[in-house]
Structures are given as structure tokens and as C-alpha cells.
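Slack export, channel: ligand-projects

TW: morning all. Re-posting the request from yesterday since it got buried. We need the structure predicted with the small molecule present, not the apo form. The ligand is LZUJQKHR; the SMILES is in the block with the sequence. No rush, but it would help planning for next week.
GE: picking it up
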Amino acid sequence: MSPSDAPVRIAIAGASGRMGQELIAAVLQNPAVQLVGAFDRAGSPSLGQDAGVTSGQHTSVAITADVAQALHNAQVFIDFTRPEGTFQHLEAARTLGVKAVIGTTGFSDEEKTRIAEFAAQNAIVFAPNMSVGVNVTFKLLELAAKALSTGYDIEVIEAHHRHKVDAPSGTALKMGEVLAEALGRDLKDCAVYERYGHTGERDPSTIGFSTIRGGDIVGDHTVLFAGTGERIEISHKSSSRAGYAQGSVRAATFLQRQSTGLFDMFDVLGLRD
Ligand SMILES: NC(=O)C1=CN([C@@H]2O[C@H](COP(=O)(O)OP(=O)(O)OC[C@H]3O[C@@H](n4cnc5c(N)ncnc54)[C@H](OP(=O)(O)O)[C@@H]3O)[C@@H](O)[C@H]2O)C=CC1
Ligand SMILES: O=C(O)C1=N[C@H](C(=O)O)C[C@H](O)C1
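GE: finished. pasting the full C-alpha cell output, ligand included:
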């Protein structure tokens, strides 16, 4: 086996989280990658457990709160945590030369700039949605927005589980950016995130966002183009988290061919124009 064929050595941040567990399962079943580290924050009840426990597998990797120890043998770490955690992990990874796949959402614009600065040293894939289907949906939205640029009001509607802490979802915001760019607008100027009371008539230049939170909804996104006498809806619905995890593993193997730079799933999937 040549070094380039060797499995990519992966560490998982937020190892006991919903995505952390899904990622560990995806890594354990994919021979192109190898689990070498799993970490979670201090105080997590999962510390010391075998990382494979939820997948029903025994691994030689125990979940630790020691980020440097979890990263020391890794080539890439995959982070689905919270923005403040992601930056702590990026700091540790910088000194060790470890690349990153970041799926965490809820970053401010200033924080996104900081991620780009980290990527100048070690390559990063950063995307609010790692599923192939959602990234293809972004392309469909671009096409639809260009074709329906006048006479159609655009609304982005998203629904997620009751535990989600950020709104609108990172995916919904990215959809807004794709739509605004296709229409030659700036999302900052045309997004409407709230409506209440006497709102006045709808401004046709706006892109509206609606957020639903409840139960165990994995992640639904719909963009509505509402015209006169017709409506077009483009929807993506996730029924499990497997697609996010498999996309993340694909992103980690993509990083094998990159030393520095900031990438997203369009780069990983070959969808960039
Ligand atoms: N890009 C994509 O495709 C997707 C992105 N996401 C995003 O991934 C993130 C995680 O989602 P999900 O797995 O559902 O969330 P969970 O809350 O289930 O998991 C988050 C994990 O990160 C840990 N964590 C929380 N805060 C910190 C911190 N400050 N430092 C270090 N670790 C921390 C949690 O530990 P503890 O339990 O102790 O709090 C937990 O282990 C969200 O931002 C979500 O939007 C989710 C799905 C797909
Ligand atoms: O928190 C989640 O669950 C999800 N978060 C991502 C987002 O904010 O877009 C991706 C997916 O929708 C699931």
C-alpha cells in the first residue's frame, strides 16, 4: 500500500453529540479512513468510553477531553460542535498541522473570516450542509432564481429538531446567499428574518426566512417562489444524519490532496462552475 492509499487518520470532535456519533459510525464503516481520536468537552459523561460504543463496535479509541492528545496522530479532524468549541479545536490543530472539516453552524461573519485565516496554514472544508442532496439543491436554486427573477416572491422555510440552538439554519442562510447572488442582490440588504404586527405589504426585493423547531425533525428546507397564479417549491428533506456524515468523510479524503486553503462541498463534489 503506498502512503497515498493509506487510510486517512481522523479525529472526531464533539464525539458524543448527535453528529459526533453518526460520524464515528461512518468512519468505522469506511476503509478509506481510520478513527485515531475522539474528543468531547470536559465534564461530558462520555469521557473514557470507547468511541464505538453507540455503533456497537469496540475500537482502540477512548473519548477524551484532551484535544491535543486526540489530535496528535490525526491528519484531519471533523468538527460538529459549537463555534466557541471549533475555535479551541482549530488552535490545537494549528500547532499540530492537522486539517479540518467543519460542519458546525452559527458563526458570525467575523468568525468566518477567522476560519479563513486558519485555512491559510492547514486546509479546511467548511460547509453548513455536507449532504450531496443539499448541495445539488443549491445549484437548482441558482437556476430557479435566475429564471424567476421578476414576479416571484422568494421565501426560505426550514424545520429542525427541538435541540437546535441556531436560527435560521446554516443551510437556510446559505440558500439565501445563493438566491441573492443569483439575483444580483446582497443578502444583508434584502433578508427578512422576522414578521410580527403591522408589517405592511411585502417588498418584492426581499428574501424571507421562516423557522420551525420541534420534535426530532432532522432537517427540512424549502424555497418557495410565489408568483401570480402559481407557486414553485424546491425542497430537501433529511430523514437521517447519515448523508451529513458520509459527506464529511468524503471531505476528509478530499483534504488529503490539499495542504492549505478554504474549501466547501462544491469543491469536494466537483460542483463549482
Ligand atoms: N454541516 C452539516 O452538514 C451539519 C451541521 N450540523 C451542525 O453541527 C453542530 C452540532 O450539531 P449536533 O451534533 O446536532 O449537536 P449536539 O449538541 O448533539 O453535539 C454537539 C457536541 O459538541 C459538544 N460541544 C458543545 N459545546 C461545545 C464547546 N463549547 N466546546 C466543545 N464541544 C462542545 C457537545 O458536548 P455537550 O453534549 O457536553 O454539550 C456535543 O458533544 C450544530 O452547529 C449543527 O447546526 C448538524 C448537522 C449537519
Ligand atoms: O442542527 C442540525 O441538526 C443541522 N444543522 C445544519 C444547519 O444548520 O443547516 C445542517 C442540517 O440542516 C442539520
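GE: first-pass observations. The pocket of NDP (ligand 1) is lined by residues 14, 16-20, 40-41, 44, 80-82, 84-85, 103-106, 127-130, 170, 244 (CB under 6 Å). The mean pLDDT is 97.
TW: perfect, thank you
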